[in-house]
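Q: Got a minute? One more chain.
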Amino acid sequence: MRQTRWQPFNPMWDQVQQLQTEMNRLLDRWTDGGGRRTLGALLAHSFPPVNVWENADHVYVEAELPGMEPKDLEIDVSAGNQLTIKGERKQQLPETAVTHRQERGVGSFTRSLTLPFDVDPEKVDARFENGVLLIDLAKHEAAKPRKIAVKGE
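A: Always. Here it is, folded:
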């Protein structure tokens, strides 16, 4: 007669191991297998961080892009209210460097925003100073508030 040890937590342990396997698979998609985050994980939907605000005639988008050059950036306005910022952050380490930690992403990125109203693509101005990109987009005439005169009898 074969004897087996009673293990009351065996089904629960199997579920914990299955959860660990699924989490490892999920995290491996976002890392290079050695625990270092890949560009896709670092930059997905969050790089560059942006602020968006407006006044009566313009909407402004401010993006933080430290260490980048204006020549490495591309800005597109399409479909009336779609703003896309594309660029590439280049690795700035010497070839002989040994990396111990890399939290700043390198490589190509794309960040698309849907603006709250249509803008005039012919009236877009972009300035880049001290690692901050400021995009000034003029509201389309149809999106600007209009005062309506109220007539009385």
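A: The chain has two helices and seven strands.
Q: Perfect, thanks.
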